[in-house]
Amino acid sequence: MLFARCTLLIVSLLLPLFALAQTQYTLSGVVRAADTHEVLPGASVAVPASATGTATDAQGAYSLPLPPGTHEVVVSFLGYQPVTRTITLRRDQRLLVELPTAANELGEVIVRGTGTLEQKLQTTQMSVERLTTREAKLLPALFGEVDLLKTLQLKPGVQNGGEGTSGLFVRGGSSDQNLVLLDDAVVYNPAHLFGLFSVFNPDAVQSVDLYKGGFPAQYGGRLSSIIDVRLREGSHEKVGVSGGIGLISSRLAVEGPLNKGKGSFLVSGRRTYFDVFTRAINRVNQDDPDFSPIPDYYFQDLNLKANYQLGRKDQVFLTGYYGSDVFGFNSDGGFNINFEWGNTLGALRWQHTFAPRLYLNTTASFTRYRYNIGNALDEFSFGLASTIRDLSLRSDLEYHTADNRHILKAGATVTSHNFGVGRLQAESVSNLVNFGSDVSYTGQEGGLYASDNFTVNDKWQLDYGLRLSGFHSGSDTYGGIEPRVAARYSLSPTLSLKANYALMYQYVHLVTNSGASLPTDIWYPSRLSVKPQRSQQVATGVSWLLGGGKYLLTNEVYYKWAENQIDFRDGAQLFANADLDQEFLFGKGWAYGDEIYLEKKEGKTTGWIGYTLAWTKRRFPPQRGTTGINNGAVYYPTYDRRHNLTVVVLHQLSPRINLTGSFVFTSGAATTLPQGRFVYQDALGNGGNPVAVPLYPERNTYRMAPYNRLDLGLVYKLRPRHGESDLTLSIYNAYNRRNPYFIYFDRIEDPQTNLTTGYRARQVSLFPTIPSVTYNFKF
Known about the structure:
The chain is mostly beta strands. The protein is built from 5 helices and 47 strands. The protein has a 22-stranded antiparallel barrel. A 5-stranded mixed sheet has the order 9-16-17-12-13. A hairpin with a 4-residue loop joins β35 and β36 (605-619). The longest helix has 17 residues, at 2-18. 41% of the residues are buried. Residues 297-733 form the TonB-dependent receptor-like beta-barrel domain. It is found in: Cell outer membrane.
């Protein structure tokens, strides 16, 4: 009886939302690119005469309620010519719109109209950045390697993990607090070459969405950000080949239709040349007794995307990724090392349209990240390995009411984790030494969510939802309720106020003893005394459309506080430790700041300026027989940067030439340096010579010099007989700024006595001015 009453109450509350309006019909459909038939997420679909419109979702679909009669519908998207269609509505109607590529290919970053900026102004969603490959390919890049994650570092609120690295530290969060998704499959280590490049091949990626706060209810499992990467579908019209040849790698992509355009495919690959040159050098010098062999290294990745239309209402999508880094060293002295790491993932998504306003997406995915280290010295060998494997199933339902005032979403996800925390094996040829250990755990993670995007009236819009998440490992179960709410109030057609709040849980943790994400880091589940991390974030801001819609100025202020932040006691044993729970320390964190962002997307000169003023703090009190960290006092982590300024400019000099530039300035990274040394006489351990012991102050009390860098680029479009091609020239660190990477100390010795008289600080810098050239082609 109680269940029946509750059901009746819920139905009575929801019935008005699903009631069909008698005086309106629904115009729905998909927006695609005319040349490739790929869907265009984020395209603007507007009816200017009635001052109404919407944007396409991640699958390029839209739904727009309109009164009966004749309407002019304008559809536009970044880098494409706008299309105007006149339609007469007498019933619900579907309209497929294909946008032709802008006539000027090099003007890809120019937006014809102000739809994109107006969408940012009108949506409740704030703290979101969308980046397309078209934009990223125009910007100067290290070694000419276009990197989408590095481009995101040019957005306010995002810090890098060090010179040249692709790691992201978002609004005071650590690197493991970013949820990285590739077509809804989790990527655990999104980096090649120890963090210098990301795993995302720009030829295969369509767009990247970065959520820094105000997280929609369908996302969960991390505290700081969601990085949602979507792959291209491939051309539905004709077979095409594209790629590029650069200084350190080459890329190749093949795409085309399946079964006369009912589907399409895309296959892309990339590989570096490091090992080709190092092996040649080692071979030439193999007979030189004074020559030291150079290690071999290369990375490679392969992407697959295919889709097929099963019928008018059903479509399936297949995504695959394989990437690996291989490092090897073989010396004449019998010492050999082989180190391999990488990601493998696959996702199968079924999209079903029940009605013009009701959609269902169901995705099954598999993810694996692993690394393996093998060492050998004469007859003795040593191996260390770790892995994490996920099997996941998620389903998302979306419904638009007839008047489009409510966009209702609901869904569920369940993931089975397998954590290979550490596998250790050591043995000798004679079998005198033979031992090993294998530490592994399992865990199940799940989530349920429901949300509603409610347009109250012309001024008010609300986006509210609830997520219920949980995690089970062994005999331990954790869970929590995660409310999400966002609101937008329009003061005028060009000025909006926004605010949001989100609570997040994180049930898996990255075991690392460094500030950056390394291949040897281990993922570890919540279990026993390792409770899930938890954070809350509130943000408020203003969005202002200026210059007749050519500029968008936003200012966001945020405050985030977190519990159960994780670090490790001094001397912690991290590898193949069956009692790793006892090595953890737990504390609290705070992050707050102000982000100012000015963006321009129309005209020959486009780009953005971003400035962030931010603070990040941590506190780990005494616990488990230790003094905690920093003796329990509050300290700043290494990625705390007070000021961060980025300027990005793209200028169309001529129909064939684009000039680009980016400038970055950040406050120096926090680090710990000795403030003095204690000298004592060691009669036994050092031959009677004085020994100097460093005296360290509180953690991270020293700031390195500010970081600043100017990158310049030029894209020159060639005129081949067939297809398209261009030369992309880049200059990384144009004025040769020697930015600090780390600091060490040299001893100062008396030339007469060879005794140490003092110490001198030395700065290590990584990259000087680096020019590069890349040849890109498409036919």
